[in-house]
Amino acid sequence: MTGVSSEGPLVGKLAQRAIAVTAGLFEMGDPPRLLASSCNECGQPHFPRQETCPYCSADGCTDIELSNNGTLWAWTAVTSAPPGYKGAVPYGFGVVELPEGIRIVTRLTESDPARLSYGEPVHLEIVPVYQDEDGRDVVTFAFAADASDAPVQGGE
Amino acid sequence: MTGVSSEGPLVGKLAQRAIAVTAGLFEMGDPPRLLASSCNECGQPHFPRQETCPYCSADGCTDIELSNNGTLWAWTAVTSAPPGYKGAVPYGFGVVELPEGIRIVTRLTESDPARLSYGEPVHLEIVPVYQDEDGRDVVTFAFAADASDAPVQGGE
Amino acid sequence: MDRVEVAGVGMHPFGRFPDVSLTQMGVVAVRAALKEAGVERGGFQAAFCGTAYGGVASGHKVLGAIGMTGMPIVDVEAGCASGGAALMLAASSIASGQYETVLVFGIEKMPKGMIRSSFFEPWQEESGMSATPAYFALRAQRLMQTSGVTKEHLARVVVKNRSQGVLNCDAMYRSLVSEGEVLSSRLVCEPLHLWMLCSPNEGAAAVVLTRAPSHGANAGLTRESRASSVSLLAAVLRSHLPGPVLGESTPMAGLVESHVVASGEDGAFVNEATLPSATTLAARSAYEEAGVGPEDLDVVECQDTDAARELLSYEELGLCSDGGAGAFFATGATERGGRLPVNMSGGLLSKGEPLGASALGQVVELVRQLRGDAGDRQVDGARVALSHTVGRGANAGVVILRG
Amino acid sequence: MDRVEVAGVGMHPFGRFPDVSLTQMGVVAVRAALKEAGVERGGFQAAFCGTAYGGVASGHKVLGAIGMTGMPIVDVEAGCASGGAALMLAASSIASGQYETVLVFGIEKMPKGMIRSSFFEPWQEESGMSATPAYFALRAQRLMQTSGVTKEHLARVVVKNRSQGVLNCDAMYRSLVSEGEVLSSRLVCEPLHLWMLCSPNEGAAAVVLTRAPSHGANAGLTRESRASSVSLLAAVLRSHLPGPVLGESTPMAGLVESHVVASGEDGAFVNEATLPSATTLAARSAYEEAGVGPEDLDVVECQDTDAARELLSYEELGLCSDGGAGAFFATGATERGGRLPVNMSGGLLSKGEPLGASALGQVVELVRQLRGDAGDRQVDGARVALSHTVGRGANAGVVILRG
Ligand SMILES: [Zn+2]
Ligand SMILES: [Zn+2]
What we know:
The complex is a heterotetramer, with two copies of chain A and two copies of chain C. By secondary structure, chain A is mostly beta strands. Chain A has strands at residues 18-20, 26-27, 33-39, 45-46, 61-65, 69-78, 91-98, 102-108, 121-131, 137-145. Chain A has a five-stranded mixed beta barrel with strand order 6-7-8-10-9. By secondary structure, chain C is α+β, with helices and mostly antiparallel strands. Chain C contains twelve helices and 14 strands. Chain C has a nine-stranded mixed sheet, sandwiched between helices. A two-stranded antiparallel sheet of chain C has the order 5-6. Chain C has a two-stranded antiparallel sheet with strand order 10-11. The longest helix of chain C is centred in the C-terminal third of the chain and has 17 residues, at 355-371. The chains are: A mainly beta, C alpha+beta. Chains in contact: A-C, A-D, B-C, B-D, C-D. The interface between C and D is large, with 60 and 60 residues. One zinc ion (ZN) is lined by residues 39, 41-42, 44, 53, 55-56, 58 of chain B.
């Protein structure tokens, strides 16, 4: 996990005062992890975790951790804040494909769609979205392009 | 209109700075008036006004003003503020029967149910509910018992 | 029309569950009902989800979570009768031959306290005319004037229902209350005290309906072959007729009986004094469809949004004569062990009211009663049962089941 | 199954009407449809009201205002397909013989701007994952990758629809726009610019359905005797199948085609690469029920929530081959005067989208087209028409009409 996104990686900088946007979705460790499950019946992975398989309806799933590395499958950027969102705009948004055979809807650290391309390698990061009343960073998961080590302030 | 309720009549005291809670429901004059219509087809009165008769579906109604005097048909008091209500509690609430053959759901100026009785003569008043940001009284319609000229502070 | 059978029922308890999402509650109820019915993915052709405040695609979220989508999924809103409306749509789609098996469920997650109903206009809220319990109170007061009902009767309805709630692990309130305690609970709107009003809350219930295996004229009699079989004889929804000022339609004004006439269901004019309520319209139609009358009923679940509403329902459902609610209740007929026990689940007064789920919660209870599975609440020998919900709209749903 | 006929249609224009209540808009549409159908009070046996955000008892308020209650009134929510769901329920209740005449209407009064969908969880909102246009944008981007669609195509869809909106007095936007103007409107989410997105707004539409007068096998052919008769051949609602990550079901994750398989409608497993969307499921079923295919269609109204959504619908509805949307659009086939004109009402891009009313607004347009009453927008000789809505859930509604 050496990628440094334009939003900055979380580890070592914010972790002490960071709280997850919701519990049970990801782990903030180094490396961070998306928490998923795999169905004991059909073998399909799913995210987020739930007891019943959302693909074959079977009960009984095993917790798995998804790979942190995948490829970009679709992307855009959100240019004005949607309802209930307290973070900054623009921000990247897209779908990442992981080797487990699952596609994840996700924030992207890159907010300029022109700087991304189909199939590009990406990796998981935990990023701050906004600060809560107590000044803590509320964080969520996002994917960053592996290649974006030293991002240019493109277009801004 | 000589009745003086415990909330106090509006005329001459508030009219200059009063605004109706909504337009088209009543007139704040002396005497005040409820604005109703009568169906040209079936002859039924209805309140509030609308173009189509809510009883027989016919188009074509004539504006009428309802009698200001009626009798009490049902009553209670609201003891805690319902959602969206900015006035004081408790306040009276009930149904008044008017000679036109219509029963009106209405605020009552008397908030002690024990002081009211079935069939008791009542009359229309316009009463303040709360003050808006500009300090104006927001007023609505209510019925007051004719007999309650000098209300005792019962039960309080 | 084909005969409709209840293949399975399921519930998520009614109560307050801050850590359980609306979707999760629905999943619990749906999976329980499907399991009981032995119905798997692909085994039902449509789904109806009753909810009043659940929001967009509530039903899809539940079925999406368990990978059971693809069929038509319709969210249905009919106020407190939402579940009844959903059941009506499901039942008629089977009876008409459109579908073989249909999933019906109801879900709700209401905030605590007085419901801020989207029914009222802002000016009504500002005028203090959106206090729902006040309308209940006016209706209660009228009932006291016309039907020999006393405040003690109202308190005793609560005592009756709460004493059953003690026995129901799906209920929110599970402690006994005394008449004195009810009457000394906070006065909300005279004559209604706090404990006489049900609490809006959270929960889910589900029912799987299926076409009866044999289609002959005597299909209803093949019960012996399926010990736990419960037939749905009727599921009817009706709205109010224009005219009266009280009742769940909540108009701002209404007509005086003696003055004139109002409009009947068929568009003809009838005297308002005889104008049937939405509940009566639904009940009459359900009795006719089911081929049974009130005298055939063994157990009833009826809408006890407030204690007076239960007593009014007795009259509207024809369980007693018009004006006879007070005397009928005083006989103890509707108590446990009485001639026609009402709200043996504990009623909404014990369970609370998750709007979209409440009607189906009644059906779950009645199916258990008809199967003899109601445990400590069992009404011995219950064969024919009626469920009744009524709410804002007005909407009234009446369901008749036979074990 | 009995044949179902459209007896009357009515509309309240789509737009923004700060001084007109939701109920008033509904009354306008309902009265217009009833008048056209010659149906009076007591003349319909059930009413279905499509609305997503109307609130409790929305349908009752409309019918209560005009004294037309008493029958079952059900509010139906299926996102952008709410009106389609209502129509499906109404049509099947007539086809099955349950009712003779049914009123269907849709009403909505959406605030300006991005919809705060009750679909999303709070944490999704906080994470910035509730931006509805972003999901549209991802779908558009995928379509550009797989179907030869360009940004210019997207702009030209807007130009096409807006040029028809000019001719429709029920539309909100009634001015011509150029491709350049569309592409220079504010970028919302690449590749979607502001004018490529429809506006949530207000409006109402109503349809009266009735059983066709003759019930013979050739009932569909008696049209000559009723010049303005329009038959409803199919009204189908479907939800999504589990599997894909994009599409109106808005999951957080989905499966990769090459990796594995997902579940088919009947519970069997099929490869995701061939997994039909909710729209495709509904269209296939509707074509089968109606006995027509895409090649028989003369005019189509389809969901153009955004410009790409219209092009995707071409593929999903079978109007062109999979992957062929760009090339098909480029032929001009769906333009006015083309082989299969699409969204001649101006589409949602011109009319705006009052969720509960939009599907029925399409049906109103198509009925006028089939009657030859569409004025300047008339598609000559239109005989068979298809309406398509799809939205959050996912829900997809497809209606096929024949003049
Ligand atoms: Zn599985
Ligand atoms: Zn009239």
